[in-house]
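Good morning,

Attaching, inline, the backbone tokens for the sequence recovery test we're adding to the shared suite. The designed sequence is right after.
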């Protein structure tokens, strides 16, 4: 017997030994969850890809505030531990209603920079012609 976990929200729905597992799965409703984009104040070497720099982290959670607090404590993903170890701050750039599926889609897209309002603001500023002088 082992726990049966909802593929969408990660919640434990029941156990493989439960006789009413099918009903439990049918009755299960995923809690609303949030996908968030964290923007690091400085780019950092990406532990998942040593040749690349990363400045964003996409995660999701039914309880994003608690999850992000864990990131702040240096727990969780390797890249967030590296960010904390180096004393680099981060901001919550944007959040979307969604769960694991949306997180995976956004990660696969590899366009965090274009999703990030902080980076987009920077690009807009860079494109502003001339300075007042
Ligand atoms: Zn679920
Ligand atoms: Zn950004």
């Amino acid at each position: 017997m082992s726990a049966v976990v909802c593929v969408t929200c990660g919640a434990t729905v029941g156990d493989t030994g439960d006789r009413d597992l099918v009903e439990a799965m049918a009755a299960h409703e995923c809690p609303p969850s949030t996908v968030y984009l964290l923007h690091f104040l400085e780019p950092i070497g990406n532990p998942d890809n040593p040749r690349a720099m990363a400045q964003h982290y996409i995660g999701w959670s039914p309880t994003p505030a608690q999850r992000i607090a864990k990131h702040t404590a240096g727990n969780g993903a390797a890249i967030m531990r590296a960010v904390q170890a180096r004393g680099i701050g981060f901001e919550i750039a944007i959040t979307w209603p969604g769960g694991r599926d949306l997180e995976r889609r956004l990660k696969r897209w590899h366009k965090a920079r274009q999703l990030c309002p902080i980076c987009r603001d920077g690009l807009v500023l860079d494109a502003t012609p001339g300075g007042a002088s």
